[in-house]
Amino acid sequence: MKHIGYITHSDCMIHDMGHFHPESPMRLQAIDTRLQAQGMMLDLTRMEAVPADLSVIERAHPRQYVHNIEQIGYDAMRGDLIPVDGDTSIGPGSLRAALLAAGAGCQAVDAIMAGSIDRAFCATRPPGHHAEKSLAMGFCLFNNVAIAALHAIEVYGLERVAIVDFDVHHGNGTVDIFRDDPRVMVCSSFQHPFYPNRHVEAQGDHLIMAPIDSGSDGLVYRKRVEKPFFDALDRFKPELVIVSAGFDGHAEDPLGELKLVEDDYRWLTTLINDIANRHADGRIVSILEGGYHLGALGRSVCAHLEMMLHD
Ligand SMILES: [Zn+2]
User: Within a 10 A sphere around the Cβ of 150, how many other Cβ atoms?
Assistant: First the structure.
């Protein structure tokens, strides 16, 4: 059994974009409840997330952008909900939650590199993969997976880090940040055409894009990603695998239109494990992105963690 850190913080729930917003604090509650109900929490090492320093976030985003988000975050502490794009806003608890979400990934890298855990799952929000270098969008403020990858590269001298993004939406922000940085291989599967339709055409040996038709089930999905992703990852030989773990490709999800089920997340996780075991000493940092059906989200995270754990 692997030693898995479950990194979270109750303050990730104080980021609240309004009662009817799908990216709700209840998502973390749903994951927690399900893990407890399954008895899985006993096998995980619960770790309290610590906020990232701005300098750590500035590895992925320009200083001006980070300070702008910080300023809006402070302004919002007066009690307002300040919109930063059509579906993303910053409220009184948002800056604190965003710093914790960015910090959790770095903390996961630190604990794994120190050998105190083998792998980690960050149950944090806001998510991050839509956040481009200088653009907050799609419920995302800071790109948590990119910040974790750059932390591993700059602090531990890793030369090759892979990011596997199986959220139903394209990881446009992650592609934007690494499009000219071959130290990081980005593999993103996504419903297409679909939100956000940015940087989909990005080209490079280190950018592996798998657009999937709306309505596709797990069988179609598996065929579409198995060889492109995992052959490329095998050639790349990552020293660390980071996962943009979005579960909105689930058949029950209200936002996505793919038909994945828990077993598809088990299958994906097994292949990710194999790559990590072959090249990265088993090191995996998985960070929550989307997933908006509370029941399906809880079950899918359980399926994902089950495979990370019993490997
Ligand atoms: Zn998504």
Answer: 25
Tell me the CA–centroid distance for residue 3 and ligand 1, in Å: 28
Distance 256 CA to ligand 1 centre (A): 7
Q: Which of 130, 206, 250, 279 is catalytic?
A: 130
CA 289 / ligand 1 centre spacing (Å): 6
291/301 Cα distance (integer angstroms): 9
203 pLDDT more than 90: no
Return residues with CB closer than 5 A to ligand 1 (ion).
167, 169, 246, 248, 290
Candidates 185, 229, 232; CA nearest to 211 is 229
pLDDT in tens, 56-88: 999 999 999 999 999 999 999 999 899 999 999
Separation CA 289–CA 243 (nearest Å) = 9
CA 105/CA 123 separation, integer angstroms: 10
For the whole model, what pTM was predicted?
0.99
Instruction: Of 141, 161, 157, give the one whose Cα is nearest residue 149.
Output: 161
**Dist. CA 115 → ligand 1 center (Å):** 31
Q: Which domains does the chain have, with CATH numbers?
A: 4-309 (3.40.800.20)
pLDDT digits (tens, 9 = 90+) for 209-254: 999 999 999 999 999 999 999 999 999 999 999 999 999 999 999 9
Catalytic-residue membership of 192: no
Bond before 196 cis per omega within 30 degrees: yes
CA of 296 from ligand 1 middle (Å) equals 14
For 102-146, the pLDDT digits (tens) are: 999 999 999 999 999 999 999 999 999 999 999 999 999 999 999
